[in-house]
Amino acid sequence: MASANKQNTASTARRAKLEEARRRERARERRSRVITLTVGVLVVAGLVAGGGYLMNAADDQDKAEAAAKSSPVDGEKSWDDLTQNHVEKTVDYPMNPPVGGDHNPVWMNCDGDVYTAAIPKENAVHSLEHGAVWVTYTSKAAPADVKKFTERVSGTPYSLMSPVEDQAAPLMLSAWGKQLTVKSATDARVAQFFTKYVQGPQTPEPGAACTGGIDK
Prior knowledge:
Structural class: alpha/beta
Order of helices and strands: HHEEHEHEEEH
Strand order of the largest sheet: 1-6-5-3-4-2
Radius of gyration: 19 Å
Number of strands: 6
């Protein structure tokens, strides 16, 4: 019973941490929108006349983001009917990086974990099963993009990052059954992918742990 209570407490703490990270990101984006709109209103009509417009515009943007969250990410690839068997062998995945399928019984820690060396794909797939987003990159990725992704991942529960040198593009994002290639960490679709798929509706085991696995 004590063990079950401890697991429930840990799960509640993880959910709270995730919601807090999402709240902070929404707040940052909203502040940025208001500042940008304020400058525009000052130029066109002045601060007083533009106050109501600012709030309406911010609300419209919030609605647009909600709509984006319920829509596919432009350019993403999807796979259905992925197997979920636990195996203790190397798996030959049909996509690289893999986005699902049979996987190791132990997950990679994915509580904002950034790995600077390659990690076992079979363990990373288990992390995706728990609702993590996996950012991968090659040596051709720009250092500025790697740095920006490192900052995003390290501040986001249920995410992880690692190099995958043999993938088809320098920067890729994967979730269970979903994958997106981007040319830059500043691509607007990055935020949409994280918002939609970190513990998103595609997650086979929502709320499962992203700690207590392996970290190398």
